[in-house]
Amino acid sequence: MIRFIVNADDLGLTEARTEAVMQFLKVGCISSASIMANSSHLSTISSLIQEYPNASFGIHLNITEGRALTEKLQRYDLTDSSGDFRTKHNVVFDFRQSPQALLDAVEEEWDAQIDRLKSYGISPSHVDGHHHCHTFPGLENVLLRVMRTHGLTKVRNTYNWPNPTFRHFIKRHLVHARENAFSLFCRQNGLQTTRYFGGFDEIETRLRGAHTCWLGNAVIECMCHPGHPDYAAETEHVRSSRLPLISWNDL
């Protein structure tokens, strides 16, 4: 049987979005959420999540929005003079040619983010990234070191949800070779992830009324964004969904 992790991203980004995520946890249409460690709402979040022991709460690693927790990234123009991240939405940065000092600065920032969650009594169940920064090329070993330092073994896959027709399946995997490389990286380093990952609407639409025998017993993570004004339609679809849910704790 196919099982789903429906994960709400960006928990803590704003008060309204935090409230929306908590409402979805209450009604049971999501099973997981990932927390932004540079949020100003962590005290409230740490209290509220105690009401949902069956849900999983991961860390939403971040180098693309809000205030950095460390200072060294400013030397490499990833933050401005106020300490806010410069990089914005849907930009994939390539760190493969970056100096080791920059990679070390990213590692220090991600370490600080996990430590901040822990200081509020939150032990992350899994790791993912704001704007998928945890999969940025060149940061794989940074991610691995951070996860091993903190004893974390579960991480979000990258967009690898295929069209089930053979022609589109091949095209998708050729186009997204980087995503396949990340999946391989996870397997080679003993990191647990789901078989597939994609946006909620993308996955739910393709599965509706389709034959799913080709999926076997796959675990699929569906990303959603409750309370985000740009995802109003998705939010309503998640609210009315009846998928068989598990959390990252069950993986």
Descriptive notes:
With about 250 residues, the chain is α/β, with parallel strands linked by helices. It has a single domain (about 5-250), classed as TIM Barrel (Alpha-Beta Barrel). About 35% of the residues lie in helices and about 15% in strands. The protein has a six-stranded parallel beta sheet with strand order 4-3-2-1-6-5. The chain is globular and about 50 Å long. The two termini are about 15 Å apart.
Top keywords for this entry?
six-stranded parallel β-sheet; alpha/beta; 251 residues; 6 strands; TIM Barrel
Classify the fold: give the CATH topology.
TIM Barrel
**Helix coverage percent of residues?**
25-40%
By CATH, the superfamily comes out as Glycoside hydrolase/deacetylase
Head-to-tail CA distance between termini:
14 Å
Count of distinct structural domains:
1
| DSSP summary: helix tally | 8
The gyration radius over C-alpha positions equals 18 Å
Number of strands: 6
**Helix-strand sequence:** EHEHEHEHHHEHEH
Q: Could you list the spans in which at least 5 consecutive residues all have pLDDT below 50?
A: none
CATH C-level label: Alpha Beta
Q: Please give the CATH architecture.
A: Alpha-Beta Barrel
Task: Tell me briefly what this model is.
The chain is of the alpha/beta class and 251 residues long. The chain contains eight helices and six strands; from the N terminus they run βαβαβαβαααβαβα. The chain has helices at residues 15-27, 42-48, 100-119, 140-149, 166-175, 177-188, 200-207, 232-239, and strands at residues 3-11, 32-35, 56-61, 127-129, 196-199, 219-224.
